[in-house]
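Below is our example:
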Amino acid sequence: MNALDSIVPLLSAFVHCFTAPGFLHFQHFVLAHMALLGLPHCVTETLRLTRLHDILHWTTPYVFLRTGRWSCRQVSQALLDLLTRLLPLPEELILTLDDTLVKKWGRKFFGLGYYPDPTDKNPGASKRRVLGHCWVVLALLWEVTAGLWVGFPLSALLFVPLAACPEGWPFQTKIELAAMLLHRLRWPAKRLIIVVDNLYAKAQLASLALDQVRCILVSRLRSNAALYLVPQKPSKPRRGRPPLRGPQVSAQALYRRRSQRRRLKVHIYGKTVTLEAFVGVVIPSRTLGNTPILVVIFPQRSGKKMNVFFSTDVTMDPVRLLELYAARFKIEDLFDEIKTTGGFGDYRQRSFPAIKRHATLSLVAYSLLRLLSVTLKSAEAIEAEPWWHPSGPPSVTRLRRAVFKALRISLGLHAEPKVNENISLKEAA
């Protein structure tokens, strides 16, 4: 079966988001983002791949990204509706949020700022900053089988530093952008479980209120985070307002309470781990509000500090809490794939609309490839190379090769290798 036979019906789910000429450009960019492997996903390379400039002027793709009449929010909503229709998702959706750095430099790039590079492991890297864009990305997590998770990126927003905000541009923090990503979409579920890192464990996400959708935050706290016991009801009526918090207690002191320890058997990162942890309900610091949270506390490998995981749902199973937080690491794998082979950061246009739309289209292309990889039962259904017959469902890389072959593109259409100019006259003769 041709790879396009499986992809074209998926693209038809986005036809209502564009005009007729715009949908042609949408197909061009999405198919190019799917097929390009090892090459920059810029507009020039997409035109080399699909040969769209043979039937349209080569400037029209730039106009489509910069001033086209379409909305990234509507495209992300269509992607979410497609995933919920084709995947057997549970009644509660698992979402994850995080930010990622895309290194960029050049004149007149919108929203550039200096950020620490998490991939730099050289001495003194914590003090150095690199120039680039910081994107806040929202992804949907789905558990294919027990312990096997996959991620589908839905949408992304660009964080603009205060110093880089132009006149009239409202400055928004990463927490505000994360809340905006959740508010922008209509969720076909009664409950959302939002799994984030400790940098996003703030009251704005912990108390998030969406229309007829209950939101639960799962994250972790610092080992020295301020925790308070639940205040006890007074035996006799007292004057004044009742206290919101009880006595302050540390994570180490809570773990010493052997009567409240539980032995948990958790399946994380492909392994089954048995650990002894404190499980109880406490009141967090004021950065998370005044509502009680469920905490799971156990020592780190070094034994000097404590791991403190929490959920705003006090009735959640502690084993489920730890497994959900371990599944959050899938977004890190997702960042690695969309930036190395997905072309997420390969944009070369300078304006904000073009940058945002390039990022949205690359996320749609990756999500559709991931959707095919989990819905196709066998890799034999996709024709890539006749000599390659791996077992199991096709991977995203194999699907990229299949799309490349289906478009009937030869390697000669890409940029030719540079000619070695440093040759002697004898070799030239």
